[in-house]
Design goal:
The protein has 333 residues and is of the alpha/beta class. Helices cover 44% and strands 10% of the residues. The N and C termini lie far apart (43 Å).
Length: 333
Amino acid sequence: MSDSVYVTSPSLSPFQAEMKVKSRRVAILVPGPVSLFELGCAVELFVLPRPELENWYQAEVLALPGHSLEGLAGLSLQAPSWKSLADFDDVLIPYWPIEQSAESNLITELQALYQRGGRLWSFCSGVFLLAQTGLLDGKDVSTHWRYRSKLIKAFPLLSYREDCLYRYQDRIACSAGSAAALDLGLEIIRRDYGHEVASVVARRLVSSPMRQGGQAQFVDRPVSRHPDLLAASLDWAIEHLAEPIAVDQLAERCNMSRRSYDRKFRQSMGQSPKSWLLSQRLQQAKNLLESSHISIEPLAQATGFANGSSLRHHFRGQFGLSPSEYRRQFQAK
């Protein structure tokens, strides 16, 4: 059996359509003590002015009453106090003290915002606040792997997923820890503005826009002494996704045996070479569905799938909808 990996007039999404007319207002709610990294991610993604982009988010950082915004190394922040969410479209919780119960009026306002069509997002420990609303019951969620046990114990009706960087369901999204905040933020931007704008933001962040939600949070390993050994094969594979790619070819480009390459790949990437190739092909298919009018058969060939049926099968398995449905929702006019 061959080792070659053959992965056998559109409308805007509601949020993209709205953003053609006006910006969405985002409340970034911050308790104390401050988690500087997650707050910094939120500010960089949604608050930083981007005059080159039309109708960018109108985001505000709001301190919760009674919370002192102090961080590590003696840092102290000031922010306007939160009073109401009535004028906001979306809410982001970049972090939350995991043992703390929220005030009932905050819970009520979050529930009301969601019921009127707003979106709720959390980074890292922020899921502990969203879980208190009851809106996560029965849903798959993510948070930092360190908080897994406490989250499951405190909120047994939700389903924790440790094999993902973020989850986005029914206008509610939550990310795993630390750097996964950037992955979720870029996914939100991609859904709202398309992959080209998300790529612009990612370049500003000096970050890759390619990490998908469905992969492991971390791999328990030391930093590689030879980080470039795999890089050449990965770069080559991305440039040749339209072609059949054998794992043996990738191993040869690294001057490794197939067995050594498989082992090192799993240690470094947290998945097999074939799984990684499939994820890259699906990501490229998503990009083309958003940015072009190529029909499904030639699009499948351009991304290395054997045919349109194979693309549809894997696309629906990964994203829960067909390529055509995805294009109707996310392709910008």
